[in-house]
Amino acid sequence: MVAVVLLVVRIVAVVVIVVHIVVVLLVADIVAVVLLV
């Protein structure tokens, strides 16, 4: 049971990190486009 909880926590952590990176990249792209325009 503990192993399952740890696995879920690890998966959630990875997903959060990936989403955070994607959001940062999107924001950077939007800022770059706004500055270029």
Verbal overview:
The structure is a single chain. The chain has one helix at residues 2-36. It is mostly helical and 37 residues long. The chain starts with a helix and ends with a helix.
Give the number of domains.
1
N/C terminus separation: 54 Å
Largest sheet: none
Taking all residues together, what is the mean pLDDT?
96
Task: Report the sheet-strand fraction.
Answer: under 5%
Number of helices: 1
Gross geometry: rod-shaped
Write down the Rg: 16 Å
SSE blueprint and pairings:
Elements: H1 2-36
Using brief descriptors, characterize the structure shown.
mainly alpha; 0% strand; 37 residues
Structure described in brief:
With 37 residues, the protein is mostly helical. The chain contains 1 helix and no strands.
